[in-house]
Amino acid sequence: MIFYYWLVGTLPLMEHPIWGQKIGPISIFEWMGVICIVYSLVHIFSRQMFPLPSFLGTWETRLFVLLYLIAVLSACTRGGGLALSDGPLIIYTSSLLLIFITLSVVDTLRRLRWTVLTLVGSYGFASLYLIREWQHGYKIYGVNFRPGWIVGDSNYFSATAIFAIVLAFYFMHGRRPRWEKAFSIVCLLLTILAVIFCSSRGGFLGLVTAALFLVWHTKRRVRNLVLMSALVLPLSVALPGSPLHRLLDPSTDYGSTQFHLEAWKAGLRMIEAHPIAGIGLGRFKLLMPSYMAPGTNIQVDSVAHNMFVEVAAELGLPALLIFLGIFWFTYRTLGKLRRSTSTHPLIRETASALQAGLVGFAVAGSFVSAEYQKTSWMGFALMFCLMPLARSQKLARQVEVSVPLAVMEETVLPR
Question: How far is CA 29 from the centre of its chain?
Answer without folding.
Answer: 18
